[in-house]
Amino acid sequence: MENISIQLEKVFGFIPKEEIYGYAAKCETAQEMLHQGTGKGNDFLGWLNLPGSISEEFLNDVLATAEGLRKKCEVVVVAGIGGSYLGAKAVIDALSNTFSWMQNDGNPKVLFAGHNISEDYLAELMALLQTKSFGIINISKSGTTTETALAFRLLKTLLEEKVGKEEAKTRIVAITDAKRGALRTLSTQEGYKTYVIPDNVGGRYSVLTPVGLLPIAVAGFDIKQFVAGAVAMEKQCAASFEENPAALYAATRNALYAQGKKIEILVNYHPKLHFVSEWWKQLYGESEGKENKGLFPASVDLTTDLHSMGQWIQQGERTIFETVISITQPKETVVIPHDEENLDGLNFLAGKRVDQVNKMAELGTQIAHVDGGVPNLKIVLPELNEYYIGQLLYFFEKGCGISGYVLGINPFDQPGVEDYKKNMFALLEKPGYEEASAAIRKRL
Ligand code: PA5
Question: Which residue of 47, 112, 115, 142 sits with most ligand 1 atoms within 8 Å of its CB, as the best mutation to test the pocket?
Fold first, then answer.
């Protein structure tokens, strides 16, 4: 099977190919630092060789757990935030029928909680769950994240009220650290089935651990193909610079950044990919945005957003470039019918597939944006399926590791995320925060 590919031709008009390829040595060094574990954050490199190390036996265990939930539950709620939810959400949305939430297709609906603290969201979710048989996958590496723990407390209480404590235990799976954290303690005490998030895999690089695999399997998708795709990309991204799509991507975005392009916009032409962009934004934003550096990761869904953000992209401040995810072959076929009266004037499209129109929109937009001063990278997926999504996500992970090292930061920590938590705990008067509470109250 062919691999996903990266096309850079529409960048060369802005930065000559030689200049981008001039980053080869830096990318090779970054690649070496990753593989030899000599760079910053080297205790978080477990994701690097992860796909190839996943055993059939382990995947069968995840599938068996998923099957247990699938048999009992109409709805499975995944409680998690950041890296503990976005990967699963991205893959499930990308592979699902857009309207599956309206249909009974034999699969449980996978819903998400613990990624916000909205009282309305939680109340509405719990009202829905009152009427459904449901289970919970609680995901938190630290086991102490407030959003997730709060949602889990509510969901667990509801489930126990509905089915009793003993039955609830068979419908709850916890995915967390091997030893540390409140979720580990709680799971041991309650006797939940658990999976471990390896110590050396950070949240946003964890989609190929049970964090992503279990919810994706519960939704009915082929996790073996997903992993197989990632394995193929792991091999491809170990190649030398010119054959390594992740290195080419890292080189190009660093070259553009050095030239004053401060914002990278990830573009798709299929709304199913919306959450792939959300996952990508977290991966790159949290990995690179530090030490007052880093491209700002933004995203648009086209052609939808051409009617909102299109104007800005075409003619706003020239500090942007685009990375387009292009799908060669859609799953479905819709042919535009001929209309005798042709009142809408669309007969010039009759007999064409909708995707032909979408592809011309994609091409026309690329030409317009390049003409407007927006460099354009393209990542081509032959199809949207488990195998190629597995490739895509690993490609982005590897690209992020290389890119972060070329930028000179630690792509595996997130020190800035703590600041809001400290203030929130101080405002909520969490025990241990007395001094911070007094200090912050004075500032209100
Ligand atoms: O990438 C990360 O490390 C973060 O986004 C975490 O995934 C997120 O903060 C959730 O953390 P936890 O899994 O510990 O609840």
Answer: 142
Place of tokens 């007094």: 438
Q: What is the DSSP string of 334-357?
A: -BPPP-SS-TTS-GGGTTSBHHHH
Is the separation of the CB atoms in 266 and 399 below 8 Å?
no
Percent of the chain with pLDDT over 90: 97
Closest C-alpha to ligand 1, atom 12: 140
Nearest residue (by CA) to ligand 1, atom 3, is: 203
Report whether pLDDT(418) > 90: no
Predicted model pTM:
0.97
Strands 172-176 and 193-196: parallel
What mean pLDDT do residues 73-91 have? Answer: 98
Average pLDDT of the chain, as a whole number:
97
Q: Which of 71, 307, 317, 435 is catalytic?
A: 307
Give residue 219's pLDDT band: very low, low, confident or very high (50, 70, 90). very high
Atom of ligand 1 lying closest to residue 147 CA: 15
How far is the CA of 35 from the CAs of 4, 157, 167, 205, in angstroms? 22, 45, 45, 16
Domain residue spans of the chain: 5-39+227-412, 50-221
Which CATH superfamily does the domain covering 5-39+227-412 fall into?
Glucose-6-phosphate isomerase like protein; domain 1 (3.40.50.10490)
Looking at domain 50-221, its CATH class is alpha beta
Q: What is the pLDDT of residue 419?
A: 87
